[in-house]
Each structure stands twice: as C-alpha cells, then as structure tokens.
Design goal:
The protein has a domain of about 200 residues: NAD(P)-binding Rossmann-like Domain (Rossmann fold, 3-Layer(aba) Sandwich), CATH 3.40.50.720. Strands 3-2-1-4-5-6-11 form a seven-stranded parallel β-sheet, with helices on both faces. The protein is of the alpha/beta class and about 300 residues long. The longest helix is centred in the middle third of the chain and has 20 residues.
Length: about 300
C-alpha cells in the first residue's frame, strides 16, 4: 500500500483517479481549493486538504510523507485563460512549479515521482496530424503555453533536482462528473446534457472540426500505470486514441443513444479554434503495452448514465 497525493482530486479526472487508488488499497491525500471541485466527488477514505496548489505552505502540508504525486489541479479551460490570463497562469504554471519543488524533499528529504497533466493544447496550430510527441509545439492560447511550460519545468525538475516525472498530453477527455453547466466544460458534457433533455445544440463553425476524444477511464488507467512504472527522467506521452471524430458525428451518436433529435444552431467559428486535433498513440502503446480501451459508443453511454464501466 502506498500513499499518494492527488492535486485537484475533487475535480472531474482527479476524483476518478482517487476512487481507483482507494479501490486498489492505497492511501490518498487530496489537495483542492474547491473552486471547481465538488465535495461529493471525494472518496470517503481520502483525506482532503483545502488549499491553493500555488501556495507553498498548502502544498508542503499535503505532500509530506507521500510516495508519489498525481498533479491534476489546473484551470483546464482555454477560454478562461483568455479571460483571466494572470490568474490562470498562476494556477497552471506557478502551481506546477510549486508541486515540483515540494516533491524534491517530500519523502524524508528525498524526491518522489510526479505524474502530471499536460495538454494537446501545446501543439496549437500544428497541422501535421496525427500529432506525435516530437511534433513542433505552437500553442495558440495562454493555457497551451502554460502546459508547455510545465513540461519544460519537468525537465528542470529531473535534470537539476532529481524529481522524476511523467507528463501526459491529454486530448479531449470526457466522462461522468464533467460539469455540463459550466461554460468552460468540454463539448461532450454540454452536448450530452442538451441532447438528453431535447434542447437545441449550438455548434461554433460548420461542425466538421475533428477531435480525439478520450474516455476518463482510460486516462485514469494510464496515470496509474505511469506511477507503477516508477518514472525515471522527464518523459511526455500523448494520451489519445488516434481516432478522429467530428462534432457533427459526435452529435449524431448522442442522438442515437438518447433516441432524441435536436435542432442544430450554428454560430461563427471561435477565434483560435483548432480545425483538426488528432494524436498519435504509438509511443503510449510501445511504452505501456496497450492503447486506450474504450470506444466512443461505450464512453458516451457511460457519460449519459453517469456510471463508470468496469
């Protein structure tokens, strides 16, 4: 049994990870400022430290004695990073550096591994799809720049301070507990709620934008596998399926699952919106021996029912 810190552990991905770790018999401490996290997401057996991930004192309190850190706390919204540039930068990059620094001496004065969330947003307008990890990084948003900064600081954490890290460039993650009421939520949670309720769906642009949708159950599995592998160095992997899905295709599948037809309302495309974002999972498969297991149909069914498949 190990003891792990999960930052952002009351949020969408973090709470599913905490559930998995508790279910595997590990001890879990959660650090979350509860700005978007929900108390009902916290596993009963997890310890909660309410605090800011960019506050060294809060991180120091939460990290003492752990065997590893899963760093997921972030303002995971490109749009919000545009509206609140400095505030999101503090959480997304300064918070990551704070975690890396605390990890230098978390276990009796010695470093502990950190598995952290990066993002496909680091690729920006790169059209060399499917995107490989060695593709040029050209982020278009402050969010993408901060996530790229996290990767660069992870290199420093390992090379200078001996903190081993594994970063995952999340593509479009979806699943139960994603808040559809937030204007910053992913397209699947918003579409799923509106289709289930028979409401009009707004699409920005023509709907032919293509995304690589990844079910949260696969994300959790690879986070755990990375920690079990004991990171050495500062590796980065795409966390993706490699399978393209257009927004119109996504809407069609949701309507089939809900036996509901809704009206599409088209608005002008948003500035900076990426036309095609598909990842290459070859490095992920080669390193971990497998790729993502959940197809879109199974993942969307779980999202609609709110129940995680086994």
């Amino acid at each position: 049994m190990a003891h792990y810190l999960v930052t952002g552990g009351c949020g969408f991905i973090g709470s599913h990870l905490a559930d998995r770790l508790i279910g595997d018999g590990h001890r879990v401490t959660i650090l979350d400022d509860m700005s978007t996290g929900r108390l009902e997401n916290k596993p009963l057996l997890a310890k909660l430290v309410v605090g800011d991930v960019a506050d060294p004192d809060a991180v120091h309190q939460a990290i003492q004695g752990v065997d590893g850190v899963f760093h997921l706390a972030a303002v995971a919204s490109v749009q919000r990073s545009r509206e609140l540039w400095a505030e999101t930068h503090r959480t997304n990059l300064s918070g990551t550096v704070t975690v890396f620094e605390a990890a230098r001496s978390a276990r009796n004065g010695t470093p502990v591994p950190v598995v952290y969330a990066s993002s496909a947003a680091v690729y920006g307008d790169n059209t060399a799809t499917p995107l490989r990890e060695d593709a040029a990084t050209r982020p278009l948003s402050a969010y993408g720049v901060d996530k790229l900064g996290c990767e660069l600081h992870a290199n420093v954490a390992w090379a200078i301070h001996g903190v081993p890290t594994t970063g995952f460039r999340f593509f479009n993650v979806y699943g139960p507990r994603q808040d559809p009421s937030s204007p910053y939520s992913g397209v699947i949670s918003i579409f799923a709620r509106r289709v289930a309720q028979g409401e009009d769906v707004t699409i920005f642009g023509d709907g032919e934008q293509v995304r690589d949708f990844v079910f949260v159950g696969d994300v959790v599995r690879f986070l755990v596998k990375a920690m079990e592998r004991r990171p050495q160095g500062a590796e980065v992997f795409n966390l993706c399926t490699g399978r393209p899905t257009s927004l119109l295709m996504l809407l069609e599948v949701l309507q089939e699952l809900c036996a509901s037809r809704v009206r599409r309302l088209h608005q002008p495309a948003r500035a900076g919106d990426i036309r095609v974002s598909i990842g290459d999972p070859a490095r992920l498969r080669a390193t971990f021996g497998e790729g993502c297991r959940f197809g879109l149909l199974q993942g969307l069914s779980a999202t609609l029912t709110g129940e995680m498949p086994r």
